[in-house]
Hints:
Elements: E1 6-7, E2 10-14, H1 22-35, E3 43-49, H2 55-68, E4 71-78, H3 81-90, E5 95-99, E6 108-114, H4 123-134, E7 150-152, H5 156-166, E8 178-182, H6 191-198, E9 202-206, H7 225-234, E10 238-242, E11 249-252, E12 258-259, H8 261-274, E13 282-286, H9 291-299, E14 303-307, H10 311-321, E15 325-327, E16 333-335, H11 344-358, H12 362-365, E17 374-380, H13 390-403, E18 408-413, E19 419-425, H14 429-447
Parallel strand pairs: 3-4, 3-5, 4-7, 8-9, 8-10, 13-14
Antiparallel strand pairs: 1-2, 2-6, 5-6, 10-11, 11-12, 15-16, 17-19, 18-19
Helix pairs in contact: 1-2, 1-4, 5-6, 8-11, 13-14
Amino acid sequence: MNRKLFGTDGIRGTANLEPMTAATALRVGMAAGRQFTRGDRRHRVVMGKDTRLSGYMLEPALAAGFVSVGMHVIMVGPMPTPAVAMLTRSLRADLGVMISASHNPFGDNGIKLFGPDGYKLSDEAEAEIERRIESDMSTDLAVPAKLGRAQRLDDAQGRYPEYVKQTFPRGLRLDGLKIVIDCAHGAAYKVAPTVLWELGADIIPIGVTPDGFNINNDCGSTHPQAMQQAVVTHGADIGIALDGDADRVLISDEHGQLVDGDQIMGVVASHLAARDKLQGGGVVATVMSNMGLERYLHGIGLNLQRTQVGDCYVVEHMRKHGYNVGGEQSGHIILSDYTTTGDGLIAALQVLAVIIESGKSASQVCRVFQTLPQLLKNVSFTGHVPLDAESIKKAITAGEKRLGAAGRLLIRKSGTEPLIRVMAEGEDEAVIGEVVADICDAIKRYSA
């Protein structure tokens, strides 16, 4: 069954337009609740959200759906996506829900679902939930005596930081480090600064005053320039930028130079490999990761396995083949020794641990390979743009010929936004720019 609601990271769209309406959220709660109800015992769901205004609409709608089919709802308020995954397992819940559109602007929102094991749902499970949503669910409603309850978990803000701190190597401290932490006015605006400060760092927090509208607005991992500038301005040792739900991270060295997810994976994997703690013999990444990472890993005897874009596919491959490091260039870093999904704060702590143990600066530690020239551009579209249209295919074929055997070309529709992403990689930066521009023009002409 093809999924209509679910994309590569749950359900996502513009708030108060389908499918991000209260009515659809109610049905999602009912359908997911029934999907994860097994037996006569009381079932429960953990539900978190980021700081978007529309969360106040979707949270009660989802809760009503769950309660109506007999599920208890534990609401934890604004918390990072990985915190919801952790709490789902910790509280032995049957389901976890995160209300967030991650790195998207405030006007969007989304619904991410986690199974009782803390992992995102499979495509098959999401398809089954969609089938239930489209069906008559009146017979799924609980009788009055079996309705669920909704309650707030008051100590949620304390449980996750304590868990995160336990992933930092015992005996190490962040004393003496000045760290800029940009929380994107998002879900980690309280917990991330708290963790870093309690581990001893001198912190400069930015993006920590959410108002419902400013999440990801010129801040966070999708707009890291504010973090990079703050590092230089304050003479910080390192900068950390999270996205709206804190499952992504990008880093800045002490010079304000950006460190992306590929470099972070390289740092962590080589550090673990040197201590015989890397599983799977390498790293799992996506087709978007730079060839420089692949060459670096091969040079130190490790492999790089690539999946389609989406951290859920990275996690799936990691679980199937026994890897403990994976992620995306965009900053989704999955360290399965600690977490079931991308966790920006935990990934940042592992990089900080390498810096402290080595006694070197962030610029010396975090740039482990030379990236190949790579360019990614997004083309907005409405309606349907067939990428196999003759004019677009012609531009792609010409681009592949110009890039040659050493280059790569990737054109795909985003799974979370109405965008077509065009990425080229190769040895010649000028050629890459021309190839991407030609393909983007062909797509724009077709969609105009």
